[in-house]
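To: structure subgroup
Subject: Chain for Friday's discussion

All,

I'm putting the inputs and outputs inline so they're searchable in the archive.
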Amino acid sequence: MLHPQFIEHLQQRFTDFFESYTDIQGHTPVHGGDISQAFMLETSKGRFLIKVNAAVFGLDMFEKEARGLIHLADTGVLKVPRPLFDGKFHQQIFLIMEYVDPGNPATDFWENFGEGMARLHYNTADQFGLGYDNFLGKLTQKNTLTDRWSDFYANERIMRLVHKAQQREMLEPGHIKEAESLCEKLPSLFSSEKPALLHGDLWKGNFIAGHNGYVAIFDPAIYYGSREMDIAMAKLFGGFDDRFYNSYNYHFQLENGWEERLPVCQLYPLLVHLLLFGGHYRQMVTDILEKYR
């Protein structure tokens, strides 16, 4: 639970934000996140969500998350909780955002969700990457602007994390060679599609049905990349109905061979999970690397 001094600090921040006194009347834990704690705040100005973290790996983590939420919300294609403010109290960082009341999925929930993701991916940029680095989980996500997807994915995603995993003795030197071999194949595997605005961490824990029955997405790790990355992430841990993919493909047809490229696109989130959690993710990573050596 939140310390009384922290509550007092938050009340002052809310009061400053709204320019009128705001009383925090209670808070309730919200479950689902692996990295941070979350609570629903009952205030005199309504309900809000607070995310709290000990900040041992990135003081600017919530600042970057807020920027990502705003970036997604500004497209206007899907419901995204708007951030109000972030800050630091003693050894904790926090982010305050709009609270989305959960509801029951509408009958066309998945069709609407798939169409929304397709429309999100129509948002493009001149280069792959982003103008700043952010986080995926508690790992820094490097987003150096790059002209070609194959170069970006090789340098900023695969090789960066493969080297990190080898340094931690989670992978062996031979896996570096296999990763290099895969990266050499990337130009022939992927088409020359324009960069798409990605959610970046699209798994079943990062969306809910809101009170109106339609999706709200959150906890982004945005950048401009191959739109197959979001689809591959959705496929990796399940929880998405086939109607989502059918609707997506109807509104923005995926390039031929996308299903064969799924393991390649899933390699990045699997490397992240290997570095964060170890365990069986090593075998999943090495199976993909060995397939393309």
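Points worth raising on Friday:
Residues 258-277 form the longest helix (20 residues).
The domain at 4-98 is CATH 3.30.200.20 (Phosphorylase Kinase; domain 1).

D.
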